[in-house]
Amino acid sequence: MNRSETTKGTLPAGKYWIGDLCYVMHALWNDVCSAIFAGKSLHGGCNEGLINVKETVLWQHSTYDGDGWYAVHNNTLKSAHTPKNGFDVDSGLIGIVPAELLAKYANKLDQPELGMSVTFVAPVECTYEDGTYTFVCVTQEGREEFVVCSKPLPDLEMDEDQEGGEDHV
């Protein structure tokens, strides 16, 4: 993984789920991992960005700081409600997967506590840059975007009231 690289990809308009793919792609997790590591040596990194799983294109990228809870920094998407406590990541990545793939293979299509379902009425530009994920949709009504940061923010400190042992980003 190259934490500071820029990775882009565009997905067509449609309904998607955004979050850690391990929560909704249990039945396809081996396929997802095979696509992420295809052609890479044991310690040779990952295929970041667009990947193909079961003849369906999705987009994913490793987080800057591994597993943890990551806050939403901006959400102007009209059709999306973000998880109350941010995004929980257990597989070290955040991705966007078409709902039709989940409808075929997932036990649960929507997991609002772990990710979010969203409908894009125009193509969505997915970008990872230096720890920040940006999902942008430009329509006739204007630009809508959703931003999550997986890089530790230097100005955030753990409150004395917060319990230890948890990630607070």
Description:
- By secondary structure, this protein is mainly β.
- The chain has one domain.
- Helices cover 9% and strands 40% of the residues.
- It contains two helices and twelve strands; from the N terminus they run ββαββββββαββββ.
- The chain has a five-stranded antiparallel beta sheet, with no helix packed on it. Strands 3-4-8-2-9 form a five-stranded antiparallel beta sheet.
- The model is unreliable at 155-169 (pLDDT under 50).
Number of strands: 12
The helix fraction, in percent, is: under 10%
Placed side by side, the strands forming the largest sheet appear as: 1-10-11-12-6
Q: Whole-Å distance between the termini?
A: 20 Å
Please state the average pLDDT score: 81
Keywords:
169 residues, mainly beta, five-stranded antiparallel beta sheet, 12 strands, 40% strand, globular, disordered C terminus
